[in-house]
Amino acid sequence: MIARRQAAGALWAIVLCVLAPSAAASAPATSGVATGGVTQTRHYVSTDGSVVADDASTYRGTLSFTFRVRPNGTITGTGTGHYVAVSWHETGTIDGASFSCDAPKTAQPFAVTVGGHVAAGVVHLSLGIPKATEVLAANVQCGNGHYLVAGTTSYLRDSLVAVGGAKLQFRSGRSVVLHPTKHVEMTAAAAAPTAPGTFHVVQQHSWTIEIKGG
């Protein structure tokens, strides 16, 4: 009888050891969504004063992601995202003659990287979109020798970085909605092939990040 009880106890120990990892692995993941981006305006004046231009651009996206907290506190997860707005419009004058043009930029869906850790009941979540880019395939002629320059930009990616997307913090075990924002103003010199001159740039970064049951 004692031998049978010992055997039964050993069997249950084996079963519990097998089930424990499966239970941890099957725990539901925490989900989240994020929407936001940047609106930018630029005022440009060429050094010789012949060109004056104002442009406005918008880059916004939506991210969906999930993550789990491992027993050691490390966060692992995945996600996807896509653009909901990509626009670039410019107006101005060249030697007194007015112009107006739009850039047909394109942007593809992208992956969301998720990481971080949990310590002392606080979630330190890191979100990134390292491959989110906007592409203008060819120069856009605006008239009188002025054009919007072709190239690849990363305005949406940079916007998430600007608001601290890699350093989000909130208490664990609850749903939260975060509204990180950042206002940026700067002056920059025009780079070739744009004629020498100065840009005054204003950027407004705004995101809403919702964690469901974090």
- Write down how many β-strands occur, each being a DSSP E stretch of 2 or more residues: 15
Integer tally of domains:
1
Number of helices: 2
What structural class do helix, strand and pairing data support?
A: mainly beta
Order of helices and strands: HEEEEEEEEEEEHEEEE
| Shape verdict | elongated
Global mean pLDDT: 88
Radius of gyration: 26 Å
Task: Write structural notes for this entry.
- By secondary structure, this protein is mostly beta strands.
- The chain has one domain (28-212).
- Helices cover 15% and strands 59% of the residues.
- It is built from two helices and 15 strands.
- Strands 1, 2, 3, 4, 6, 7, 12, 13, 14 and 15 form a ten-stranded antiparallel beta sheet that branches. A three-stranded antiparallel beta sheet has the order 5-8-11, with no helix packed on it. Strands 9-10 form a two-stranded antiparallel sheet.
- Strand 1 (30-46) and strand 2 (51-69) form a beta hairpin.
- The longest helix is centred in the N-terminal third of the chain and has 24 residues, at 2-25.
How do the helices and strands line up, and which of them pair or pack?
Blueprint: H1 2-25, E1 30-46, E2 51-69, E3 75-94, E4 97-102, E5 106-107, E6 110-119, E7 122-128, E8 134-136, E9 140-143, E10 146-148, E11 151-153, H2 155-162, E12 168-171, E13 176-178, E14 181-189, E15 197-212
Antiparallel strand pairs: 1-2, 1-15, 2-3, 3-4, 3-6, 5-8, 6-7, 7-12, 8-11, 9-10, 13-15, 14-15
